[in-house]
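Dissemination and training. As part of the outreach component of the grant, students in the summer workshop were shown how a complex can be specified as a set of sequence lines and then modelled as a single object. The example used during the hands-on session is reproduced here so that future cohorts can follow it. Participants entered these lines:
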Amino acid sequence: MKLKGNAWKFGDNINTDEIVAARYLNTFDAKELGSHCMEDIDAKFSKKISKGDCIVARKNFGCGSSREHAPIAIKGCGISCVIAESFARIFYRNAINIGLPILVSKAAARDMKTGDKIEVDVNKGVIYNLTRKKEYKTDKFADFMQEIVNNGGLLNWIKNPKGSANKAKRKKK
Amino acid sequence: MGYTIAEKIFNKHIKGKKVKAGDFVYAKVDVALGNDITAPIAIDQFKKIGVKKVYDRKKIVLVPDHFTPAKDIKSAEQAKALREFAREQKIVHYYEVGRMGIEHALLPELGIVRPGELIIGADSHTCTYGALGAFATGMGSTDLAACWATGHAWFRVPETMRFIYKGKKNKWVTGKDLILYTIGKIGVDGALYKSMEFAGPVIKRLPIDERFTMSNMAIEAGGKAGLIEPDEITMEYVRSHKFAAKGKLPANFDYLKSDKDAEYETTIEIDVSKIEPQVSLPHLPSNTKAVSKLKTMKIDQSVIGSCTNGRISDLRVAAKILKGRKVHPEVRCIIFPATQAIYRQAMKEGLLDIFVKAEAVVSTPTCGPCLGGHMGILAKGERAIATTNRNFVGRMGHPESEVILSNPAVAAASAVAGKVIHPNKL
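and obtained this result:
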């Protein structure tokens, strides 16, 4: 999977309240949540971006609550992936579970600026900064998580009779 | 090498080879919790899996506590989705308005969560139950849905960071101040992906309510869990909260302790005699300072309650301060007993009367204002002191409002003074 778009840069500790404020959690409609994405940091964010753009942030992106509405809002407003120095644990799981590509690269997260044109090869784990003509390798997922990603998210993974989730059942047979 | 409590709990919930920190496991879950914000997505996802029934209707807990009593039509629809799912699946532990409470106060109170168990909740403050020596952690709605279908969830067994609290606590210093101080020291990602273990002589003497407060905020340091080794205080609590044990849950619990030679990633010693009542200034829980070191900070609202500090001992402290005094004319003071049982207890002890006489309001249990949902939203430019757990931008309302976190004594004293003050100064 290759993604292409502009980078939108954020700082450290972007929390789930900033990604989508709790006042909008009376729905989980992706479009509606998307229209409020990042609103408390940048009121017009969802209107400024184009489909396929990427969020780039520093450390601990997605800290705070367990709301899956956060990655849903990011996907819902048209953002194609999030690149960060590090992710908060629950956000990280949620993004994998619902199939929002997330990539960890300290160098890329540090170097990139808003407006940079970037291309991401999710399968290869490579980020190209076309504006600055730079290339970054992303950190690999642990094998266990890669299996979930390869299955297209958690729900497919638990259903896959050949996957790790059903190892015990196979043994019984 | 020995095992930490966290490692022992995971080993108890898997079959086969023993695991240590760093290993991935697909483990059996004892309790899987959702609320009116997160469960609607889980229900939607559950329906996509294609199984008809949940794995065990006794192990699923549904508590509509965030936007209830329903604050608007959409919230009412979400609560309705929970209610209908609970009826359809014959969920044993569904708690309706009037019987419910803030989930992380309610579940321990009802004896639904117990020592040695593995618990997941689609709510980040699920880590609260670590105070009982359970491995409890927050996850998202899809994880919850998968668990409802299979009874399992995947985990990476976390490394443990151990915090040892020593010395004599100063007056007005509570578990809340210890945890705020700790988060201030290590930062909001200081325990990212790790299990925090709170130990030492101060913890040994710490009352259970304050232990819940500490474990509750492990997530604010990025922690996956906030564990406290079970002891006499834990056992006493578990013995006196047996309702749900009667409510048909199997007695599958254990008072597990870390081995003497367990491997900790780090051990941090904290001398509590140097800690004064703390506040977290806007807009991060790690932005801590001693109350006495603050310049004048006026407040518009004081919120006392939540899953962090809405228990009976919190209300007693607030009442001690508010008794015979009045809330400052320019301040709204809103008090939230965390559960119906706590509400009744406060009523019996005359605390509610003290609050109302002081011109505070007392609310039904709800997460309401803590996350800027309802029941005390801040306008542009307003500032609140709150005994809650987060002070992110826009957390309690307008993006240009502010939240300062504190313990209940500081929040009550500040409500009277109209500005953030040390209770000694009242």
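Chain B touches chain A through 56 residues (CB under 8 Å). Students were then asked to discuss how this feature might be tested experimentally.
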